[in-house]
Design goal:
With 240 residues, the chain is an alpha/beta fold. It is built from 13 helices and eight strands. The structure holds uridine-5'-diphosphate.
Length: 240
């Protein structure tokens, strides 16, 4: 039975990484498209004002807690989120599964040239992986359907959508009835990590839940954007 808990009215699956891996691999073998989103506190806050994003998240087949802030919030009010399941880690396990089981992937998003490099790096890192296609994320409104067609023509099983939030969630939801793949997953800047244009925090920071701190040191100009974290916790304490 699916167990979802609400953080500021945004439903998030209370699931471990192990359970999430089992679930997503069953999704790949399924018959219909499954939508996976990976919100962090910033996206939960965005959903407070953006009703479209909020509704789209509610319709997802899996929503994982990508951000230590969500786990801290859950613990503060004993809500029951078990552990952090980051989009990039879940993507890693999905890539391992796809490589081992002859499933193909499509990467949509990132600056022109970035998904190409990500595809090359993924091919060399994940044995047996089949990259059915990729496209950068800076396309015009009138080209959206051509992109959906390209994804369908590629025959890919899993679509990673890296357009940033809320664009990726809304894009997936808009084309859910046309897409023929089995999974459409919003994974934000993961394409940049796979391409090597953005470095992930070392494991030490990841284990302590301090990836945000590492990112702040590397990209201090994100400071303003990160103020959303304390804002989120205060809002959650008052209204969560
Ligand atoms: N992006 C895109 N098209 C857009 C806007 C963003 O492909 O119209 C890509 C951007 O190049 C980056 C990714 O979306 O690779 C994630 O962007 P961001 O860092 O803002 O999101 P985060 O990972 O922090 O949620």
């Amino acid at each position: 039975m699916r167990k979802q808990i609400e953080i500021l009215n945004v439903p998030i699956d209370a699931i471990t990484m192990k359970e999430a891996i089992r679930l997503v691999t069953s999704f790949v073998e399924g018959d219909t498209l499954k939508k996976i989103y990976t919100p962090n506190p910033e996206i939960v806050m965005l959903a407070q004002e953006n009703k479209e994003l909020h509704n789209v998240i509610k319709e997802a087949d899996l929503v994982v807690a990508d951000g230590i802030g969500l786990i801290i919030a859950s613990k503060l009010k004993s809500k029951g989120l078990v552990e952090r399941v980051t989009g990039i880690d879940l993507m890693h396990h999905l890539l391992l599964y796809c490589g081992a089981n002859n499933k193909s992937i499509y990467i949509l998003g990132g600056k022109p040239g970035v998904p190409d490099v990500a595809a090359t790096n993924i091919t060399s890192k994940y044995r047996g992986i089949n990259i059915a296609g990729f496209h950068h994320g800076y396309f015009k409104e009138e080209n959206h359907l051509d992109i959906v067609e390209d994804i369908n023509q590629s025959g890919s099983d899993v679509l990673f959508v890296c357009l940033g939030a809320p664009k990726q969630e809304i894009w997936i939801d808009k084309y859910k009835d046309q897409l023929k793949c089995k999974i459409a997953m919003g994974v934000g800047g993961s394409v940049d990590i796979h391409a090597g244009t953005v470095k992930r925090a070392p494991v030490f920071f990841q284990k302590l839940g301090l990836e945000w701190f590492y990112r702040l040191m590397k990209e201090p100009w994100r400071f303003k954007r990160m103020l959303i974290l304390p804002k989120f916790l205060i809002h959650f304490i008052l209204h969560g």
